[in-house]
Amino acid sequence: MRHRIFLLSPANASGVRAKLILGESGRSQLALRLRSEAVPLGEIFSFISGLYFRGKLAYAREYAAPPPGMPGIVVITASGGLISPDKLFTLEELRAVAAGRVDASEPEYRLPLEHNARLLAEEMGAHCEVVLLGSIATSKYAEPLLPIFGERLMFPAEFTGRGDMSRGGLLLRCAREQVQLTYIPVAGASRHGARPPKLPKLSRRIVKAAKKRNS
Length: 215
Description:
Helix content is 45%, strand content 13%. With 215 residues, the protein is α/β, with parallel strands linked by helices. The strands form two sheets. A six-stranded mixed beta sheet has the order 4-3-1-6-7-8, with helices on both faces. A two-stranded antiparallel sheet has the order 2-5. Helix 7 (139-149) links the parallel strand 6 (128-133) and strand 7 (153-156). The longest helix is centred in the middle third of the chain and has 18 residues, at 107-124.
């Protein structure tokens, strides 16, 4: 059996929904919780990103197959390297790992990511692949990760040409219908492609069910 670990791209901490919880005046239920208790990173990013991150997390939980003693899912962060989606964060801790730009030219982002990725690459062994659930159309993930994982760094071929919302919907369907995507190496892959046909809209029931599973 080939082992598999998923790397999830982060939620956009500079977007409108992020400000609802990172700012001092947020009144959402999650914002109020963060001021009094620690909350799992996966739940926080699912709130910020919505459908896309919920889809990534639901899919990764369904199909992760890590080696014994290894995490099946880790999340890329802006300045905290690779972190488990189950790790608890207070508001101040969240601000610390979400600060900065997700850009391969930014040392604050790149150095912790490369450090954690090297440790993961050493411990997971030669018979484990790492699947990036995120965009490879830009260099922000592929550039720091590809030299470390090489041919073991994969991504879903079905992501090519799709936007974030389309990927999120696709991942939720695959998790629900027990259909796994096709993983291909990032090295040598075409990073751009024609936009595929739109997916039918997910029902509210499916979206709510995925949200409940990831909370």
